[in-house]
Amino acid sequence: MFTKIATRSFSSTSASAYKVAVLGANGGIGQPLSLLLKLNHKVTDLSLYDLKGAPGVAADVSHIPTHSTVRGYNPENLKEALTGADVIVIPAGVPRKPGMTRDDLFNTNASIVRDLAKAAADHAPNAAVCIISNPVNSTVPIVAEVFKSKGTYNPKKLFGVTTLDVLRASRFVAEVANTNPVHEKVTVVGGHSGVTIVPLLSQTNHKSLDAETRDALIHRIQFGGDEVVQAKNGAGSATLSMAQAGARFTGAVLDGLAGENDVVEPSFVDSPLFKDEGVDFFASKVTLGTEGVKKVHSLGELSGHEEELIKTAKETLIKNIQKGVEFVKQNP
Ligand SMILES: NC(=O)C1=CN([C@@H]2O[C@H](COP(=O)(O)OP(=O)(O)OC[C@H]3O[C@@H](n4cnc5c(N)ncnc54)[C@H](O)[C@@H]3O)[C@@H](O)[C@H]2O)C=CC1
Ligand SMILES: O=C([O-])CC(=O)C(=O)O
Q: Which keywords label this protein (predicted)?
């Protein structure tokens, strides 16, 4: 069979030439994420950093013949890893084991994310920063506080990556409705843990599911991470699906930076939607542009049931966000 291979031309002066740094690149997410980013033609400089092992991942990934340079860095070269980065993706930190909540990761991951945020603020203050490390509802506010303390906070350039919830929603809704998940688009809003994850099924073609089916579907989307944690049985949490989610979200940020039109993905961002109620960060659809966040979309029309879910999500989010802010105040 003859397969037509698409050819593209590249120029080193192209407006679509970006340095992307992955912090935690030797991890379960970091490795496949680095692979997928090597396949993104907008990434011309892929910078892989970890406490150890990143040079090995870089050597491996660098043999893939796409038009990018790949370099691996150990802690003594963190500055070099970050300098000139347009986008920084952070999957550094420990994952869950069965029986743990994402919040149980706070004690370990808060300081990891704080320290990486300090380095990012010092060496790449204009980069878009995409946070994967859990608990996202708290680690994103931690990064914001660190950048504020250094006078470099740009709310348009900080993102909590909630794309895995979007992928799961597409997959799980398709399983219930017996449709092709590729065509299922579900907006997921709120945050990234349990009840803070709110899929807006009323805005899909599946608004008339009976209450029992709907509730089971929503529960599966909210607790999809637990399915993987339990199946991996102590060996970690989602890595491969998360790498795909992270690559998709990073790709969308790059598309936005490159000035492409109508780049829209849900993300947990510094949001005006519920600030007057004390919820400073909230995930909703975001249009991505050359300066990062171009527009934070409102939630649109909600069912009464979704209104209730959002109310519950906000109560937990306020506490999760406050915990991150307090952590930086107490442990600057
Ligand atoms: N946002 C989301 O949807 C998801 C988030 N996660 C979170 O992503 C994080 C990473 O998960 P995995 O890759 O499975 O864990 P992992 O343990 O396999 O990898 C983590 C990597 O981070 C590195 N690391 C630790 N401290 C570091 C530091 N100070 N600087 C640089 N690198 C450092 C480790 O050396 C390791 O290579 C966890 O917190 C997990 O909960 C996981 C799945 C989905
Ligand atoms: O469940 C976890 O701990 C990892 C995660 O965030 C997810 O899979 O959504």
A: NAD, Oxidoreductase, Tricarboxylic acid cycle
Q: Residue with structure tokens 């002066």? A: 13
Do β-strands 128-131 and 158-160 pair in parallel, antiparallel, or remain unpaired? parallel
> Does pTM surpass 0.90?
yes
Q: Which two tokens stand for residue 201?
A: 């099924």
- Is residue 179 domain-shared with residue 150, that is, in the same domain? no
Kindly give the distance from the C-alpha atom of residue 160 to the centroid of ligand 2, in angstroms, as a whole number. 13
> Is the same domain home to 298 and 311?
yes
Provide the domain limits for residue 210.
Answer: 162-323
- 280-317 pLDDT, tens digit per residue, is 999 999 999 999 999 999 999 999 999 999 999 999 99
- ipTM for the complex shown: 0.99
**Protein residues whose CB sits closer than 6 Å to any atom of ligand 2:** 95-96, 102, 134, 164, 225, 228-229, 237-238
φ and ψ at 86, to 5 degrees?
-90, -35
Cβ–ligand 1 distance for 165 under 6 Å, the answer: no
